[in-house]
From TrEMBL:
SUPFAM superfamilies: (Trans)glycosidases
Species of provenance: Rothia endophytica
Single annotated GO MF: hydrolase activity
Name assigned to this protein: Glycoside hydrolase family 1 protein
Domain of life: Bacteria
Family note: Belongs to the glycosyl hydrolase 1 family.
Residues of the active site: 359
Keyword field contains tRNA-binding: no
Pfam family, one: Glyco_hydro_1
Keyword Metal-binding in annotation: no
Keywords: Glycosidase, Hydrolase
Length: 461
């Protein structure tokens, strides 16, 4: 199995899940600071002491040690996010927090010293809390200006050092988890008018950041980032196929706008049927024409869809119906390696833009024994998914790279637990906050090192 010679192997993280130091050096609060239990409970009024993300795995102070381990594995790239509230603590300031920029200076410079290409996400589920509570998050058009200012600050500051950028993490997740986008309401509480207006604001902000990045440095490569979920009809019934198509369109919309520069017809029909009238200026329409260089996505699961409301309960974390042919992880996410080949072909055929798999991994309850973890289940999971990436490349799909989620144990976004572990590196920290934070190499560490060294040739068919 042949991967391109310049394939970008690596790993992916988010600031709020690894950095800790939640109020250090002038950092402001983000929405994550009032989500101590992830998506399991509503946000709290104020930050609480039981939030593991306050310290996380202390990457803020241990980044050199962790980057050394990534370099030992042979990483070509490392996907990280900048915490918006570390650079602009409230989110609406006109001048950045110098200490925040200095921290990322140290991280980026050390990555480059180790020969690792930085891949930076501008906003990864960590909207400044002030923007969420004072302005209403992305329901407010003013956030476009605030995000544009933040994007300009960091893109100018890191010119020549960061070449690969992503605007918003899993931008379509706002359909399911609005507070990750700084909107403190459920989709039902928001209603379609406010929800889709917020989505429009976020898409315009993404396009403006893309335009800025290209103006500041034409060598910059900017991508969108989508939560990718193949949706299969539960039965051969054409109505189930229509249900799968409609659910897929929900996700396609975000890629269609980023790649094609305008809203697709099926989306405009949906808005009309919902009675939604977007407030969209001529300037907005021009902004949306600034399209991305590549499409990146996360992939963890697939679901089935059915027109029959009695077909079964929700599958996985983002709706749908459980697939009776698939097994699931310990957290109920159905495991479907072939779905990754399907989504790669689907996106390539649809958009004809280079693709980048920037999240894929298995959350599991690891056991540290004799200073390692025998995580063959993780090796099997990743091997089977990477084989399907290789098949997609053979199909003619252009794939830029693969960054596993997360290469080092971190605090889960969905559950805010440490026990849901993804890494090649075990971090000694528990759900109750205890632990030494010492790092240990798992069995999968050497496995992934070999995969990278062989450029995928060591994968088992």
């Amino acid at each position: 199995m042949m991967f391109p010679h310049n394939f970008l192997w690596g790993g992916a993280t988010a600031a709020n899940q690894i950095e800790g130091a939640y109020r250090a050096d002038g950092k402001g609060l983000s929405v994550q600071d009032v989500m101590p239990h992830g998506l399991r409970t509503p946000p709290t009024a104020e930050p609480t002491n039981d939030n593991l993300k306050r310290e996380a795995i202390d990457f803020y102070h241990r980044y050199r040690e962790d980057i050394d381990l990534f370099a030992e594995m042979g990483f070509k790239t490392f996907r990280l996010s900048f915490a918006w509230s570390r650079i602009l603590p409230q989110g609406d300031e006109t001048e950045p927090n110098a200490a925040g920029l200095e921290f990322y200076d140290r991280v980026i410079d050390y990555l480059l010293e180790k020969g690792i290409e930085p891949l930076v996400t501008l906003s990864h589920y960590e909207t400044p809390l002030h923007l969420a509570r004072h302005y209403g998050g992305w329901t407010n058009r003013e956030l476009i200006t605030f995000f544009e200012r933040y994007a300009r600050t960091v893109i100018e500051h890191f010119k020549g050092r960061v070449r690969y950028w992503l605007t918003f993490n899993e931008i379509n997740s706002v359909l399911h988890f609005p507070f990750f986008s700084g909107i403190e309401s459920t989709p039902e509480e928001l209603g379609p008018q406010k929800l889709y207006q917020a989505i429009h604001h976020e898409l315009v902000a993404s396009a403006r950041a893309t335009k800025l990045a290209h103006e500041i440095d034409p060598a910059n490569k900017v991508g969108c980032m989508i939560l990718a979920v193949p949706r299969y009809p539960l039965t051969p019934d054409p109505q189930d196929a229509l249900a799968a198509m409609a659910a897929s369109h929900e996700d396609y919309t975000f890629g269609d706008v980023h790649v094609r520069g305008s809203y697709p017809g099926y989306f405009l029909r949906k808005l009309k049927e919902l009675g939604v009238e977007l407030e969209m200026t001529d300037a907005d329409k021009e902004d949306l024409k600034h399209t991305v260089d590549y499409v990146s996505f996360s992939y963890y699961m697939s679901v089935c869809e059915s027109a029959n409301q009695e077909a079964g309960g929700e599958g996985n974390i983002i709706g749908g119906v459980p697939n009776p042919t698939l097994k699931a992880s310990e957290w109920g996410w159905q495991i479907d390696p072939v779905g990754l080949r399907i989504i790669l072909n689907d996106y390539w055929d649809r958009w004809q833009k280079p693709l980048f798999i920037v999240e894929n991994g298995l959350g599991a309850k690891d056991k540290l024994i004799n200073e390692t973890v025998e995580d063959d289940y993780r090796i099997d999971y990743l091997n089977d998914h990477l084989v399907q990436v290789g098949e997609a490349i053979e199909d003619g799909v252009k794939v830029l790279g693969y960054t596993s989620w997360g290469p080092i144990d971190l605090v889960s976004a969905s559950t805010a637990q440490m026990s849901k572990r993804y890494g090649f590196i075990y971090v000694d920290r528990n759900d109750d906050g205890s632990g030494s934070l010492k790092r240990y190499r798992k069995k999968s560490f050497d496995w992934y090192k070999q995969v990278i060294a062989s450029n995928g040739a060591s994968l088992r068919p």
